[in-house]
Amino acid sequence: MGTHVIKMPDIGEGIAEVELSQWHVKVGDLVVEDQVLADVMTDKAMVDIPSPVHGKVIALGGQPGEVMAVGSVLISIEVEGAGNLKESAAPAPAATKEAPAAPKVEAAVESKPAAAAAPRSAPVCQGPMVAREADERPLASPAVRKHALDLGIQLRLVRGTGPAGRVLHEDLDAYLAQGQSNASAPATAAYAQRHDEEQIQVIGMRRKIAQRMQDATRRAAHFSYVEEIDVTAIEELRSHLNEKHGASRGKLTLLPFLVRALVVALRDFPQMNARYDDEAQVITRLGAVHVGVATQSDVGLMVPVVRHAEARSLWDSAAEISRLANAARNGKASRDELSGSTITLTSLGALGGIVSTPVLNLPEVAIVGVNKIVERPMVIKGQVVIRKMMNLSSSFDHRVVDGMDAALFIQAIRGLIEQPATLFVE
């Protein structure tokens, strides 16, 4: 028998260190070639680290949340034969192999200690209920944990059907469907005193989000501008286009119209489609409009990028927004799809509220926030009429963008939205 020592691989992009987000194996586990051993977190995405050999895990090189240098020892595996005489790096992630497949962005979870982590190759559990030890922490995303708490469900009683037994939203639905929640909690639980506490380690995607938000608010001089927009006409156009072409071309939401409005408005306000390198003191204005579309997932906020929005039709933009959003929510967006934006569009959908103060996606200098659409009485030409109204809550980097320019930029978007024919007049 010998020992095969695997080092943290060079993931590329000049990255010198990465965060160990989650182990999928523990000491004593038998692993096979290509089995995922761990997830590591770069500045851009979560990346799977596969095993290059068959063998038995005899040592782990770090704990979840630990930042490890490229080239440091990741894991040691006992193998048949002499093993590797020299420490070698783990196989490169999929994106660096000959096939240009992008690395998989896994949904980050709150990790248990390595000794309690389940190998990904374990059989997927079937059925809605399982008995776990009282102190055993089931794998689940923060959104699933909150949903279970709201429903009064004990996660340890729910059998997970996701990778490594992870509890999914569908598992909670299956649990409720079989009436198990009533059996696991007394009828008066809604009024019972609670003294439980839960500590959640901030690692992986959540740590990266926290760092980026803190960095953005610390480095940029944020200021916000809110403008009210009458979206009645564009909503009528959208409804008409969906009725006429929805079956053949796909349904349109408001977002592709807003992307188009950004593209047209940026022709007159190129200073908004820019990146600011504050260390080099250089502003780079770009002709290409790469629109980041902020997307909520179970692991937190991601910003997949609609590239070259200036060259896309409404339906092309709509299809790309939908594809990228699904990829982000399902943990399949690549690093390239999550980087390179020049301006960001953020929307909370139906929960958009009246006003928001979005945080810049550095190094960009502008972010346009969409609030919910509401029907309100408005006075037009002396008459009170019902109109569909929506606020744009946008933020800018005051180091680069003057207040007057920001106001004029949003007013230009307002004019395009309120007179939607102008979106397509060249």
From TrEMBL:
It is an enzyme of class 2 (transferase). Keywords: Acyltransferase, Lipoyl, Transferase. Residues 3-78 form the Lipoyl-binding domain. The keyword Transferase applies. Its EC number is 2.3.1.-. One of its GO terms (molecular function) is lipoic acid binding. GO terms for cellular component: cytoplasm. SUPFAM superfamilies: CoA-dependent acyltransferases, Peripheral subunit-binding domain of 2-oxo acid dehydrogenase complex, Single hybrid motif. The keyword Acyltransferase applies. It comes from the Bacteria. Its cofactor is (R)-lipoate. Residues 139-176 form the Peripheral subunit-binding (PSBD) domain. Belongs to the 2-oxoacid dehydrogenase family. Forms a 24-polypeptide structural core with octahedral symmetry. This is Dihydrolipoamide acetyltransferase component of pyruvate dehydrogenase complex. It comes from Pseudomonas fluorescens.
